[in-house]
Amino acid sequence: MKLLIIVHHRFELWQAPAWFSDRLRKDFPSIEVVHLSDYDRVTDEIADADIAIAWSLRGEHIRAARKLKWIHSTATAVHALMSPELRASNIIVSNARDVHGPVVAEHALALVFALAKRLPQAIRYQQQKHWAQSDMWQADERPHELRDATIVIVGVGGIGRPLAKMAGALGMRVIGVRQHPERQVEGVDAQYSFDEIENALREADFVVLAVPVTRKTHHLMNAARLACLKRDAYLINVGRGVLIDEDALIDALRARRFAGAALDVTTQEPLPPESPLWQMDNVLITPHIAGVTGKMWERHYDMFVENLQRFLRGEPLRWVVDKQEEY
């Protein structure tokens, strides 16, 4: 049996470390483990692979894969895998939703706190050596209490579920928006379908986008939906940049139609220096670090090994992706 690992990215942390494949060889000596550092030999190596660990493969790679039965993505989002060839195949796809979800939820909540307590503004005043107590009280947007505030979580999955529990523990009212609102989730007070998202947005003090990218969610937050936000509401994106129509977002922020946004992801990454988002005083930007943690690859290993053992025993895998729904 052959396992191919191809997890290449410009950001070092997203690349599988050498110890990952070394430990697999030690723990599973009967499996041939091939760990590539780039895509040059993927077509040749995937031809006789039974399993692949990858977050991005093209249709030509799937066509070349004569034996491939399972792809495990080290990302939660799997849109970079979803070629027509893969959708039409019998290859199982699993993702890393439980590796990244709780950590990204922590970051989302940190952004909620930062916006509610006006921390970016306080930092700017600190840089000016200005004691801005009166300024911050007299501003159009004052510090908020989180207790009794309404948070709308768009996507109640690997990120949304732990975020709902954390928000609920703070006394926030939690509304979820999901594909199947009839499925109740612990810690969520009310749920809406995507067809009803406008109703949820109108209730929100904070909106957190934590939904995967699919054909349905691309530009989910367009100009019309941004217009549903209350004047004092905040928008937070820890999903993917393309969930928001960025031009419409910039227009709405310039016009002060809602209070502000915190973005861990943007349509183009790195965010170009010429983007107006950099200079906006009602925007907080973190550079796609919501899932960054020193423990990440240890959790990846434990999760993958659990599924690998299931695979070797012929048991159903966990964290399986619906290839048609793309999550």
Give the overall shape, derived from the CA principal axes. Answer: elongated
Low-pLDDT windows of residues:
none
Number of domains as seen in the coordinates: 2
The assigned structural class equals: alpha/beta
Q: Just give the CATH class of the largest domain.
A: Alpha Beta
State the separation between the terminal residues, measured CA to CA.
Answer: 27 Å
| CATH topology term of the largest domain | Rossmann fold
CATH superfamily placement of the largest domain: NAD(P)-binding Rossmann-like Domain
Instruction: Give me the count of strands.
Output: 12
Overall pLDDT metric:
96
Q: Helical segment tally?
A: 12
Helix content: 25-40%
- What is the beta-strand fraction? 5-15%
Rg, Cα atoms, Å: 21 Å
Query: Order of strands across the widest beta sheet?
Result: 8-7-6-9-10-11-12
The CATH architecture name of the largest domain reads 3-Layer(aba) Sandwich
Any descriptors?
alpha/beta; single chain; elongated; seven-stranded parallel sheet; Rossmann fold; 33% helix; 327 residues; 12 helices; five-stranded parallel sheet
Description:
- It is a single chain.
- The chain is α/β, with parallel strands linked by helices.
- The protein folds into 2 domains: 117 residues, Rossmann fold, CATH 3.40.50.720; 186 residues, Rossmann fold (3-Layer(aba) Sandwich), CATH 3.40.50.
- 33% of the residues lie in helices and 15% in strands.
- The chain contains 12 helices and 12 strands.
- The chain has a 7-stranded parallel beta sheet, sandwiched between helices. A 5-stranded parallel beta sheet has the order 2-1-3-4-5.
- It starts with a strand and ends in a 14-residue tail after the last helix.
